[in-house]
Design goal:
The protein has 153 residues and is mostly helical. The chain is built from 8 helices and no strands. The protein has helices at residues 5-10, 21-37, 44-58, 62-78, 82-92, 95-110, 117-129, 134-147. Pfam families: TerB (PF05099).
Length: 153
């Protein structure tokens, strides 16, 4: 169902048409997968959190969310380096949604109950590449932590 998303994202970068609906969500999910894989430990807690984020954002059933995540895993594996991939997403997704992406990334980063420097660095990098300032990224982090019942050490 998302077979052509990679070509739509990366073949004609001179025409950065907006992504919407399923394409946008799978591109966002691919960023979440990339984050979850950043520490070389992509486990069930992170997969479940990505599924929950997709279900919440799009009103999907658990089965549909899992299907979208699996598609995102394939796209993430084929996507170019993080900088190019993130810039492409930035050019094609509205600013308000980019703020939500950072909050979702923090949720995934904390999903396994561990703080990992590689994941935190990647969230900070992606936030900057998406045009999210440090203050807004920190607020998104705090919202995610509060939503997960975590406290800042």
């Amino acid at each position: 169902m998302f077979r052509n998303l990679l070509s739509r994202l990366f073949t004609d970068t001179s025409d950065p048409t907006r992504l919407s609906g399923q394409d946008a969500e799978v591109a966002i999910a691919a960023l979440l997968v990339r984050l979850a894989r950043a520490d070389d430990h992509y486990g069930p807690a992170e997969k479940l959190r990505i599924d929950q984020i997709l279900a919440r954002r799009r009103g999907l059933s658990a089965t549909e969310a899992t299907e979208w995540r699996v598609a995102a895993e394939m796209i993430e594996a084929e996507a170019p380096d993080t900088v190019r991939f993130t810039r492409t997403v930035k050019d094609r997704i509205e600013l308000a949604d980019r703020h939500d992406i950072i909050a979702a990334m923090w949720e995934v980063a904390f999903a396994d109950g561990r703080r990992d420097a590689d994941e935190e660095s990647l969230v900070r990098l992606v936030a900057g590449l998406l045009g999210i300032n440090d203050r807004d990224a920190a607020l998104a982090r705090q919202r995610a932590m509060n939503g997960l019942g975590l406290t800042d050490p």
